[in-house]
Design goal:
The protein is of the alpha/beta class and 379 residues long. Helix content is 37%, strand content 17%. The protein has eleven helices and 13 strands. A hairpin with a 2-residue loop joins strand 4 (87-91) and strand 5 (94-100).
Length: 379
């Protein structure tokens, strides 16, 4: 739905449209909604003193979908207003955007991309709106990805599973998803709340559902976060379950619960404690090592060399949250230094700007990073 300076207005159910109406590029708007005539945009200079201020009106073809797009009590439009510094006013199936030419174009791209997802049957949450905004803002300075997308287009990478489709919410997530698709070994490192583990599990679930792999193997070092929990009762699975709960939570988000239970019982989804991985060859599998910052150098080398034919391995961790004894080198930090130049290995680094859990989490991470940098500067 790009804006042009010339052309006829598409047919919309309203009174005679003014001469500033524009339509998607092309000669005539198609008669069928299925052929693409789902919305029209009209633009004119805003009635303000600023020369770069414009007014864009977008008309959507379906009232129900438009209301889903705008959100309950227009909460989604409020996010667009807040993050892009535009004014967005909804009237029925139409939204009026007022602001700078750059900001209104970004807002138009965001709404257009989200409306397309709603047409595809997806639900839209506030986090999806924030993710689309990040992508629109960063379109001119897009990170390098294995499959570069056309500049100015919100072609977000996505992962489809049985229960939902997950779209990248930041440029780094976009690069991460594309890296998992093309590389055999991917490192995802960075602060909490950036989606490293969640996206890795989603990707593994999609591979299993497509038949690209035969099983999913989840592993995580059993290291307490600064606490000593003592003896844990039960069999091996019950002992390591508390450490793997984030991986389970993500799995149940991607796959029906009964299917997850059957896969766990049959071994299609395997919980493999890191301490018992030695000597195995993991072929035709999607393998995830979470909290990898708490592996030792020896453990990391042992784990990475388990990679077998037809497998993909994803290693995630946060180098700023190492719980190893003082003086012990983190296997993740060492591996990132050694393996980044190796062909077939891709390392994706997240930062505070990629936090999607809660905006406050991003500010917390940023504050800790600045404090750590200040300490290093004093030494």
């Amino acid at each position: 739905m790009s804006l042009t300076r010339n052309g006829k207005a598409p047919d919309v159910p309203s009174e005679a449209l003014p001469d500033f109406i524009t339509e998607p590029s092309g000669s005539k708007a198609p008669k069928s909604a299925a052929a693409g005539n789902r919305r029209a945009a009209r633009t004119k200079p805003a009635e303000t003193g600023a020369s770069d201020m414009v007014h864009v009106a977008i008309v959507f073809d379906n009232n129900h979908r438009a209301q889903t797009l705008f959100g309950q009590y227009d909460e989604h439009l409020a996010i667009v207003e807040r993050d892009l510094n535009v004014e967005a006013v909804a009237r029925g199936n139409e939204v009026d955007l007022r602001g700078s030419s750059v900001a209104t174009e970004q807002a138009r791209q965001v709404l257009d991309a989200l409306y397309s997802r709603i047409e595809g049957g997806e639900d839209i949450a506030p986090g999806d709106v924030e993710g689309a905004i990040r992508q629109a803002v960063s379109a001119d300075a897009q990170v390098t990805t294995p499959k570069p997308v056309k500049k100015g287009k919100l072609a977000l990478a996505s992962i489809s599973t049985a229960r939902k489709t997950i779209h990248a919410r930041t440029p780094t997530q976009d690069a991460y998803i594309r890296a998992m698709d093309r590389a055999e070994l991917v490192f995802g490192s960075g602060p909490a709340g950036t989606g490293k583990t969640y996206l890795a599990v989603a990707f593994a679930a999609s591979l299993l559902e497509r038949g690209a792999v035969d099983r999913i193997i989840l592993s995580r070092p059993a290291v307490e976060a600064g606490e000593r929990l003592g003896f844990l009762p039960g069999d091996m699975k019950e002992k390591v379950d508390p450490y793997l709960r984030p991986l389970y939570d993500a799995l149940y988000d991607m796959m029906p619960g009964d299917k997850v239970e059957r896969a766990l019982q049959s071994g299609v989804i395997e919980i493999a404690p890191l301490a018992f991985m030695r000597g195995r060859t993991l072929a035709h599998s999607a393998i995830i090592l979470d909290e990898a910052q708490n592996t030792t150098s020896m453990q990391m080398k042992m784990f990475l060399t388990r990679l077998g034919e037809g497998s993909k391995m994803i290693v995630t961790g946060d180098p700023s949250q190492i719980d190893l004894p003082p003086g012990q080198t983190s296997g993740l930090v060492e591996a990132l230094d050694i393996l980044t130049p190796v062909d077939g290995v891709v390392a994706v680094t997240f930062d505070a700007a990629d936090v999607v859990r809660h905006k406050l989490v991003g500010r917390i991470v940023d504050a800790y990073d600045k404090a750590a940098a200040a300490k290093l500067g004093l030494r």
